[in-house]
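Our consortium's second objective concerns turning raw sequence data into structural hypotheses that experimental partners can test. To show how far this objective has progressed, the report includes one record in full. It was chosen at random from the queue rather than selected for favorable results. The single chain below, 293 residues long, was entered without modification.
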Amino acid sequence: MTIIDGKKISEDIQNEIAIEVETIAEQGGKIPHLAAILVGTDGASETYVGSKVKTCEKVGFRSTLVRLPDNTSEQELLAEIAKLNNNDDVDGYIIQLPLPKHINEHRILEAVDPKKDVDGFHPQNVGRMALNLPTYLPATPYGIMQLLERYNIETSGKHCVVIGRSNIVGSPMSILMARNSDQGNCTVTLTHSRTKNLKEYTLKADIVIVALGKPEFLTADMVKDGVVVIDVGITRMPSDKTKSGFKLFGDVKYDEVAAKASYITPVPGGVGPMTIASLLMNTLKASKKEIYS
């Protein structure tokens, strides 16, 4: 059994990007510039955005953080988006989710210039992904594809079961794993909360990607020997075994499933670190005009 080390792969990617940015700077080229809009003071969002800014500095990117209060109106947020759309110095930007409930998330994401949509959420980029055209892939699925590639995990002709159909992970993963590409060509089964007899599908799977947000949902009796398991879930739960009083759990009952798996991602340290690495890769593509020339 091989543990897929997302932290190491993320650091490798960041080092590769830092070397390329250093070369760009030496040649007098434009330094990639990533911006983020944060509405409100959600603790998890603050931490995540702070990590993004710190990682940008580490690889030599420029970064801008636009902070807006909780009571920001939809029109005010759209005005800030228009500013970033029209700012030629900003290569890509993200809208940190979730947004306050009074703001229409879909309307906001559709207002982002697809050329600067380094989160890969705009319908135009989702459509390009589905058509196997060059595009910005959503960060978490992009990170998972990088893990499969860098660990040389064979996917062609394999049966992949995706558990969860969110627009952020499950749905795009099902598209990517089925595409005619090096880390694709799977026969994909997309399962969700309405799927009956889920175990019948997972027992036949060569690859299982779980993105439910339900701690330790996938158990050993649901998978076959030699399965590849990608655990996207991360839930913080009370624990008397840690100093913080909390422990992070994935969607996979790790210890027992790991005993049957050929490859498995841990939580934490698996898929999570890859999200920011993917965002940086998309921003570098945006700065080099690789997707939209």
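The partners drew two points from this record. The chain has a mean pLDDT of 95. The chain is about 40% helix and 15% strand. Both points have been shared with the crystallography group to help prioritize constructs.
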